[in-house]
UniProtKB/TrEMBL annotation:
InterPro entries: Beta-glucanase-like, ConA-like_dom_sf, Glycosyl_Hydrlase_16. Keywords: Signal. Residues 1-18 form the signal peptide. Pfam families: GH16_XgeA. Residues 14-285 form the GH16 domain. One of its GO terms (biological process) is glucan catabolic process. It comes from the Eukaryota. It comes from Asterophora parasitica. This is GH16 domain-containing protein. One of its GO terms (molecular function) is hydrolase activity, hydrolyzing O-glycosyl compounds.
Amino acid sequence: MKTASAISLLSLAGSAFAATYPLTSNIVGPGFYDAFDFQAIEDPTEGRVNYVNRATAQAQNLTYASRDTFILRTDSKTVLRPDGPGRNSVRIRTKKVYKTHVAVFDVRHIPQGCGTWPAIWETNEAVWPNGGETDILEGVNDQGPNSVSLHTGPGCVMPATRLQTGTSLQLNCDANANDNSGCGVKLNTDLSYGPQFNAAGGGWYATERTPNFIKVWFWSRNDPTVPADVKKGGAATVNTDKWGTPSAFFPNTSCNFKKHFNEHNIIINLTLCGDWAGNEYVYPSTCPLTCVDHVNSNPAAFKDAYFDIAAVRIYS
Ligand SMILES: *[C@@H]1O[C@H](CO)[C@@H](O)[C@H](O)[C@H]1NC(C)=O
Ligand SMILES: *[C@@H]1O[C@H](CO)[C@@H](O)[C@H](O)[C@H]1NC(C)=O
Ligand SMILES: *[C@@H]1O[C@H](CO)[C@@H](O)[C@H](O)[C@H]1NC(C)=O
């Protein structure tokens, strides 16, 4: 009796501790400039964009920070020469790297419009795909709902049945399999992406990564089930045990997370066209012209191609 109750008390304490994380980074407004580097690199996905540095982004107002807002967008003023560089846009990456952590993204608006391919994700670019990748929010051409996905080296597979509200797609996370589609989970609500996400005032994406699993939750702005410690913003601690069933759950049943996932940066990028948004089968199903012609000739079509992020909060 005595031993049994001591053990159950210990395991209770253990699980409560494991799911409670203290706030370590509260990135809000101008804080984005301290926490993130601007990556003026060639787009690895062949997009019709020209990623600019911080000075150019600020000079052209492609990023803008106020007390509680960070805007990141693509240019919506310039008609492009077909043989010149792509549309100016922005890709930012955290200076810090994370292993076990919770990240909460309070997002009011994501880029929308034909040709847009926004993403909020985590990876280690130097050793991709062997250090793993978690795509928290990603989509193209306003086609929702969002799919949350992992990409890894060989030997990481997800079980078909899991405790999640979303629907499993491919189960093999290996980036070398299935044309790098990864092991995705399609969320169960159209409010999770595109114009529908924006019309609802956005919402919160959150991820919890431990050595044993990765979970991602989504709550739309007016979802009555959004946990108090998420909604409050800047809470000193969060307790993921109280967050309910995740939208997407990636357990360690057939994936050794310690091996397949190493230290990750958080990346926020907005590309246009490229391998996915501009794909010759994907783009024409909902959008006009060719993707590249649309980007070149219709700057005003990109005025809603912006992120408005209230905060990125890291608990670790
Ligand atoms: C943008 O993010 C996605 C992650 O979902 C990634 O696959 C893609 O390579 C990124 N593109 C650029 C240009 O950074
Ligand atoms: C820059 O963008 C912000 C946010 O969209 C806007 O409020 C501000 O007026 C813009 N500044 C200029 C100089 O255009
Ligand atoms: C898998 O995760 C569970 C908890 O979710 C943990 O108890 C177990 O030790 C993990 N297995 C391995 C092989 O890491």
